[in-house]
Write a structure and sequence with these properties.
By secondary structure, this protein is an all-alpha fold. It has helices at about 1-25, 30-50, 60-85, 90-95, 100-110, 115-135, 145-170, 175-195, 210-230, 235-240, 245-255, 260-280. The chain is built from twelve helices and no strands.
Length: about 280
């Protein structure tokens, strides 16, 4: 049950972070959004690292996985913020949501066993996620304006999927705060400090609460996923990708982005899939 609860909680938190970043990235440059999100995350994470037990038996392999997890998360966020600056949440989110499928495929390919029933239900949920977040744009735009956010989101999904797999791989052997720390540390050292030194770090009054909320939700979502992945990486990864459907529905409610019958069908498929998966995995 832990992978299901962790994945669903992560989905809600990631959806909130997506909505915040979709607005903040239109107020300040995506690089500045990432810089502030990473700084907020670091400020929140460092005290918990001090309270957590020191990791025991950490070798080169664990450090390597942490670097992969952190770098993938930072790169994915920068690409995702750039995509959200250019495209609608309901167009970008379904592409980003394939991160869970990427992580699950890597997990299964590297040896994680999964029952046939669970595998079929995971596939059903993936289909539901894509349908729930799919939103054809009624406004005619130039081909390039639609292609660029799609490509950026696809690259972000690949980076996120790799990061999710690496996080799940190392989460069982390290205290949770130590799993969350690397991405924030890499982000601050690699993005926040260079922008600050160059005088290019931007923040406005309207963007400030959005980047703070985004930073908090990223940390909490990452932590919820890491806890769930300890007992089932593939399940937690795919359920975490439900953030796309949640974000699309929220975008309809708050930003008036249109919700289609196809999306409503996807929401129903996801709900049924999650219920059946919960029954199978308990």
């Amino acid at each position: 049950m832990t992978p299901i609860l962790g994945g669903l909680l992560a989905a809600c938190l990631f959806a909130t972070a997506t909505l915040c970043s979709s607005r903040s990235s239109r107020l300040i440059p995506p690089s500045s959004v990432l810089a502030w999100v990473m700084l907020v995350g670091l400020v929140v994470t460092v005290p918990t690292v001090g309270l957590a037990a020191a990791p025991v038996g950490v070798g080169a392999a664990e450090v390597g996985w942490l670097v992969v997890a952190g770098s993938g998360n930072v790169a994915g966020l920068l690409l995702a913020y750039s995509a959200l600056r250019l495209g609608k949440v309901s167009i970008v989110a379904p592409v980003l949501s394939t991160e869970g499928a990427v992580a699950a495929v890597i997990s299964v390919a590297t040896g994680e066993s999964i029952e046939t029933a669970s595998a079929c239900l995971l596939l059903l949920i993936v289909v539901g996620v894509v349908l729930a977040a799919a939103a054809p744009d009624a406004i005619v735009t130039a081909p390039g304006s639609r292609l660029r956010p799609f490509v950026l989101a696809a690259l972000a999904a690949g980076a996120f999927g790799t990061s999710l797999y690496a996080t799940g791989h190392v989460s069982a052997s390290l205290p949770l705060p130590w799993v969350i720390l690397p991405a924030r540390l890499i982000g601050v050292v690699g993005v926040t400090l260079p922008l600050l030194a160059a005088g290019r770090l931007r923040l406005t009054r309207r963007a400030a609460p959005l980047v703070v909320a985004g930073g908090l939700c990223e940390v909490l979502g990452f932590g919820a996923y890491a806890l769930g992945a300890r007992d089932g990486l593939a399940v937690a990864a795919v359920l975490a990708s439900q953030f796309a459907g949640i974000a699309a529905i929220s975008a309809f409610a708050f930003f008036r982005e249109r919700l289609t019958r196809l999306q409503l069908s996807g929401v129903a498929i996801v709900a049924v899939g999650v219920a059946l998966l919960s029954a199978v995995r308990v």
